[in-house]
Design brief:
Blueprint lengths: L1 H11 L7 H5 L6 E5 L2 E2 L3 E3 L5 E2 L1 H13 L3 E5 L5 H6 L5 E6 L2 H4 L3 E2 L8 E6 L15 E5 L3 H9 L4 E5 L2 H9 L5 E5 H8 L7 E8 L2 H4 L3 E5 L4 H17 L1 H9 L8
Parallel strand pairs: 1-5, 1-6, 9-10, 9-11
Antiparallel strand pairs: 2-3, 3-4, 6-13, 7-13, 8-11, 8-12
Helix pairs in contact: 3-10, 3-11
Pfam family, one: SBP_bac_3
Keywords: Signal
Protein name: Transporter substrate-binding domain-containing protein
Length: 259
């Protein structure tokens, strides 16, 4: 009788979700964070070669809340998902949550969300329709969701993709680009700088989830559920403790978490 009971319990283990793979799953130590390092104020490299910014402060707070060790690995954005998939790092920070990207990676909860805008010279104006932007040169960051939007919805425009937004800004200042299209909060940082005094937001805010997703989260390799859930738990703890608000106010004069 006892033997039959033990056998029955063993057969129930898979039904309870206690598979050998789940039992063996553990967090990497340290957890390596893939980060661009060229997306101020979210992330940038300081004069000492250290990565800094909103993303870094948030990630450090998450790691402290979950009592895990984390280190940052700098990676160009156009190779950010392939780098995750080959094991160069364990987490991508600052990845827009879209249905297309969900085919390649799993996502944590979001940790910020914002709309998308154009920025251009104050003394120039356009009709912000596909026809009105015919021939207008639009700068975007390569691999970002704004690139996909312009390619699909504004085919009559001339799109130029750049490795970093800074390169797009430089070409706009030099007159080689008419508009730069990016996240509202990133463009706000440019507009508030000395070099942004002759520029302003242009056109409406764009937030079509087909292109711009449902916020920005952390990308995790498919199936690494423990890591995904741990980071999501850390995001919630940092929000609930008030630490998120402190970090937000350090970089932005408005709440970037969204609804």
């Amino acid at each position: 009788m006892a033997r039959s009971w033990i056998i029955s319990l063993a057969l129930m283990v898979p039904l309870l979700g206690l598979t050998p793979a789940a039992a063996q799953e553990s967090l990497p130590d340290p957890v390596r964070i893939g980060i661009e390092g060229a997306y101020p104020p979210f992330n940038f490299v300081d004069t000492n070669g250290e990565v800094q910014g909103f993303d870094v402060d948030i990630m450090n707070a998450i790691c402290a809340a979950e009592k895990i060790r984390c280190e940052f690995v700098i990676q160009d954005w156009d190779g950010i998902i392939p780098g995750l998939q080959v094991g160069k790092y364990d987490v991508i920070i600052g990845l827009g949550i879209t249905e297309e990207r969900k085919k390649a990676v799993d996502f944590t909860d979001k940790y910020w969300a914002t709309g998308n805008r154009f920025v251009g010279r104050k003394d120039k104006e356009w009709d912000y329709t596909p026809e009105g932007l015919d021939g207008v040169v639009i700068g975007v960051q390569g691999g970002a969701w704004q690139e996909a939007y312009v390619k699909a919805e504004l085919p009559q425009s001339v799109m130029r993709s750049y490795q970093t937004l800074e390169q797009a800004y430089l070409d706009m200042e030099a007159g080689r680009v008419d508009l730069v299209f990016s996240d509202t909060v990133l463009l706000f940082d440019f507009l508030n700088s000395d070099r942004g005094k002759d520029y302003e937001f242009k056109g409406p805010e764009y937030d079509d989830p087909k292109y711009f997703g449902t916020g920005v989260g952390m990308g995790i390799r498919k199936g690494e559920n423990l890591l995904r859930d741990t980071i999501s738990s850390g995001i919630r703890k940092v929000r609930e403790s008030g630490e998120y608000k402190k970090i937000n106010e350090k970089y932005f004069p408005f709440d970037i978490y969204g609804e």
